[in-house]
Design goal:
Layout lengths: L2 E5 L4 E7 H4 L6 E2 L3 E6 L4 E5 L2 E5 L3 E5 L4 E6 L3 E6 L1 H4 L23 E3 L2 H18 L6 H24 L9 H15 L6 H7 L4 H8 L6 H19 L4 H7 L5 H12 L3 H11 L1
Antiparallel strand pairs: 1-2, 2-9, 3-8, 4-7, 4-9, 5-6, 5-8, 7-10
Helix pairs in contact: 3-4, 5-8, 8-10, 8-11, 9-10
Length: 280
């Protein structure tokens, strides 16, 4: 780790590291912090939730605290990590908050590529980060949060340009998807019905479903996919039984999870676990 900032009054943590810090993920484990991995001069190979990913040179990968990361290889990386207390407790514009498109706005793992112009801009921003981390005074925390906001704003702009995301000032389908995904992230272990999330968003289930129609994914599908993803993680990275996992994701009867899991993966949880053992 190159630098670490801690604010004891709020329990805020912000770390700046390099590929040495990634080596602590040689075995897969949850990041537990919001994480950016910036591949500088060469590619970085990782596995995210069992999916192999190559972060090409001059690209930045964004991860949430719940995702499982395994570092395979690659050098010359910059790693930013922070907890909710550092950044997410602040009031930010929604698209650059911890509910923003970098973290919960789309189903794919976001990777931002930097062209030569952006490389220079991000390198300057990194140097300012380091300078501020070495400056100890009573406004250091606020300055670091402002710099992280700038980093996230710039990354969000690049990601939106890459994916062709256009949002209106008021209600938009992307904004609704982001809010819905964030709610699912908070409640999927206990709330499995679309009506719960519709109520939280002050919409009827029908209105919510109609808004999702053009995204080719229904609200119920997103809830189910999140449950199945969590079940996969627990099967892969813990020794919990299928019954224990079913209870953890809100099912009183393990057979209910088994049916849902098989619908999405064509395998039962126990078959999925056996396949993991034979492939290792």
């Amino acid at each position: 780790m190159i630098h670490q900032f801690k604010e004891f009054s709020t329990n805020a943590i912000f770390n700046v590291g390099n590929e040495t810090d990634l080596k602590s993920f040689s075995l897969p484990k949850q990041t537990e912090l919001y994480t950016f991995i910036w591949a500088q001069s060469e590619a970085i190979n990782v596995i995210i939730d069992s999916v192999p990913i190559t972060i090409k040179a001059h690209s930045i990968l964004a991860l949430t605290p719940i995702q499982y990361l395994q570092y395979i290889n690659g050098q010359d990386a910059i790693v930013y990590q922070f907890n909710r207390e550092f950044y997410c407790i602040k009031d930010h514009d929604q698209e650059v908050s911890c509910v923003g498109i970098l973290f919960f706005g789309n189903t794919n793992i976001p990777i931002i590529h930097l062209d030569k112009k952006e490389q220079r801009k991000f390198q300057i921003l990194h140097e300012v980060f380091i300078d501020e981390l070495e400056t100890k005074d009573n406004i250091q925390a606020e300055m670091l949060r402002m710099l992280m906001a700038r980093f996230i704003i710039k990354s969000t702009r690049l990601l939106k340009a890459k994916e062709g995301i256009v949002e209106t000032a008021k209600s938009s389908k992307v904004d609704l998807l982001r809010s819905f995904n964030f709610l699912v992230e908070q409640h999927f272990k206990t709330e499995h019905s679309v009506s719960f999330y519709a109520d939280e968003l002050f919409k009827s289930p029908k209105t919510l479903s109609n808004n999702f129609a053009k995204l080719n994914r229904s609200p119920l599908q997103i809830i189910h996919e999140r449950i199945v993803l969590e079940a996969k993680r627990l099967l892969m990275y813990t020794d919990k039984t299928a019954k224990e996992i079913a209870y953890e994701v809100g099912f009183d009867d393990a057979s209910h999870l088994s049916r849902l899991f098989k619908k999405h993966t064509s395998q039962s949880p126990s078959d999925f676990k056996k396949q993991l053992k034979t492939s290792n």
